[in-house]
Amino acid sequence: MTLSLRISILIASLKIANGFTSPHFSLTSDLQITKPSHHHASLHPSVSTPSSTLSTLHMAYSPPEDAEKVKATKPKLPSPKVGDVVRYYDVDGGKTDGQTLVGKISLIQPIRPPTNNPEGTNKWLIEITEMEDVGDGYYAEYPSRKRRRSALRKLEEIAPLPASFVRTEDAYKIPMERGTNRPMPSHSGYDLIGYEGPAAVPINQDVVAADGENYDKIKYSLIRNAAIAGTVGTIFADLFKGTEDAAIYFAGALAGVAYLFFLGIKTDTVGSAEAKLGSNVSNLRFIFPVFVLVAVALKNVSSGDANPVDVPGIFSTVTPEQFGAAMIGFLTYRLPLFVSQLAPVISKSATDMLPGSAGMALQMANDAKKRGVDVAALERELLPGDDLVTVLLVSGPEATGKTTLINKLMEEDPRFVKPIMLDRMVDGVKFERLEQRGELLDVDASGRYGLQKEGVLEAAAKALPSSDDDNEGNAKRNVVVVDADVALAKKLVNVSGARLVGVWIGLDSLEKFESRLKAKIDSGAVAVPADETEASFLRAKVRQVVKDIEFGVVSGLFEFTILNEDIDESLRQLKEAAAYCFK
What are phi and psi of 116, to 5 degrees? Predict the structure, then answer.
């Protein structure tokens, strides 16, 4: 073995022993296996020529141009999407470099006329809805539409931000630059060259065909109803005003039907190549009532001495009565339109008049009917009966004192009981299984006790002593009282077999909510998370209170509302509401 080969093997061994490998170094050794005439094979290096057979240590060589290519490689920029949180500048912000703003992309549209700029600039215009800086790097959408502001920026003038939505704050958390305290974008900008615009949404042709059929039904239904209304109006006009006025009314009604028909031509051609032609033809609809009046005027003039017009001025050829008959007949087409729009409102108002869960159940039944579902069994479930368990649902935002009211109610009236809770320490396997399946309605703050549907129904199903039987000999049942936040109240609506009597506990101002929450924080009843400040935590709580109040107002779940300003008066009102459970 030559000296150079030994040195190469030694270096390779040291590299392996130290766990060092490098793609820039390679060890080559030209080995040759020979087979002599006897039965022993020998392995030895070929030494025919020093230049080709000696093992040598090579270093890989990278050309300078390859290194320049690596340096020139830039990370791929993202494409903009509606809903992205971005940074942009307001040049009128009072600063030399503009005020830094944060907003959401609400619209992406091309700039007209299009440009062929190879750098991709001046091609796309972005509409941005400004977000409110609520402090500590949090940005939230303005709650009021009146305060919302929008801005238009070119795509090259904005940069994406790595925003994370924080539910407790109801806002987006955005990383800030040190020193400047400005939002720090994830990329310097968006892809200008490769971006080809928002992705087209696939169109379901079956839905388009179905919508077209519905449109045709609605259009011809309006024309038919207008004709029917005109005919009925003509009969009444003949009965009360005479044949002449009835004829003029009928002519006006025909003009109204023609008006609807030509209006349909305009809507039929919207968005098509014939849109302009359809719009021009549709404008003829305005002359039909004029035709009616002209015909009446010609008839009056041709009657000679029998001309009923004897008043000069605007009604020199048509009497006021004739003019009124023609115009009322023409506007008759609006009557079926008004009725068709009013009918759903009346139906919905009737549903909303029903209190609490009854109104919600009726609304669900109406929705099921629209979907073609047989609701006979559902309607039977809506009827009151002994198989329904009455549940007193007391809900409201945090810090309203609802728990105190519930405890006082149960102390004074033993008919009201708490639901049966599942204890994790008693039956951990069942608790974990139900929790993983999402079958627990609620888990308390300690994580030990969970509420399931059976815990509500079984607690309320226990009969009271026979001395409390009603006049018909039926044993009265307990009423389970559920102290529920808004999330639990939403789940209880879907519990079958229960009749909910909803009571909403609230306060009359947000300032009182805030002061009570602050008092609970100061007393230690509510702990502020370590990663939040007291101000941000309180702000998030107040936002949640506003959302809870909105649910309490619009849900229709609560028959009774109590503003807990005085504990004794509120308890009296709760007792009156709870008495409804036994009716």
Answer: -110, 40
Residue 410, C-beta contacts closer than 8 angstroms, at least 6 positions apart: 416, 417, 418, 481
Phi, psi of 176 (to 5 degrees): -115, 145
Cα–Cα distance, 515 to 399 (Å, whole number): 9
How many other CB atoms are there within 10 angstroms of residue 366's CB atom? 13
466 three-state secondary structure: helix
Query: CB burial class (10 A; 0-12, 13-18, 19+) of residue 544?
Result: buried
Check if the beta carbon of residue 173 is closer than 8 Å to that of residue 152. no
Give φ, ψ of 128 to 5 degrees: -120, 130
Nearest to 189, CA basis, from 69, 73, 88, 70 = 88
DSSP for 17-39, please give it. HTT---TTEEEE--EEEE--SSS
Please give the biggest Cα pair distance in the chain.
148
Phi, psi of 393, deg, nearest 5:
-95, 115
Q: Determine how β-strand 560-563 pairs with β-strand 498-506.
A: parallel
Q: Looking at residue 316, what DSSP letter applies?
A: S
The whole-angstrom separation of Cα 175 and Cα 160 is 12
Amino acid at 209: A
Of the candidates 511, 507, 509, which has an alpha carbon nearest to the alpha carbon of residue 562?
Answer: 507
Here the tokens at position 247 are 């004829």
Residue 560: what are its φ and ψ, rounded to 5°? -130, 145
Contacts of 164 by beta carbon, 8 Å cutoff, 6+ apart: 172, 173
CA 490, 495, 501 angle in degrees (round to 5)?
70
Q: Which class for 529: exposed (0-12), middle (13-18), buried (19 or more C-beta within 10 A)?
A: exposed
Q: What is the tens place of the pLDDT at every residue in 19-58?
A: 444 444 444 444 444 444 444 444 444 444 444 444 444 4
- Cα–Cα distance for residue pair 516/510, rounded to 1 Å: 10
Q: Please, what's the b/e burial string for 243-264 (b: 16 or more CB within 10 A of its CB; e: otherwise)? A: ebbbbbbbbbbbbbbbbbbbbb
pTM over 0.70: no
Among 439, 444, 406, 441, CA closest to 423: 444
Residues 262-308 have pLDDT tens digits of: 988 888 888 777 888 888 888 888 899 899 988 888 888 787 655 66
Residue 370: partners with Cβ closer than 8 Å, 6 or more residues away: none
CA distances from 165 to 85, 103, 150, 173, 315 (A): 11, 14, 21, 6, 69
Cα separation, 424 vs 429, whole angstroms: 8
Q: Give every CB contact of residue 512 below 8 A, 6+ residues apart in sequence.
A: none
**C-alpha to C-alpha distance for 392 and 410, rounded to whole angstroms:** 12
The span from the CA of 492 to the CA of 441, in Å, is 8
Q: How far is CA 169 from CA 173, 219, 533, 535, in A?
A: 9, 48, 11, 11
pLDDT, tens only, 197-235: 887 767 788 888 888 888 889 889 989 999 999 999 999
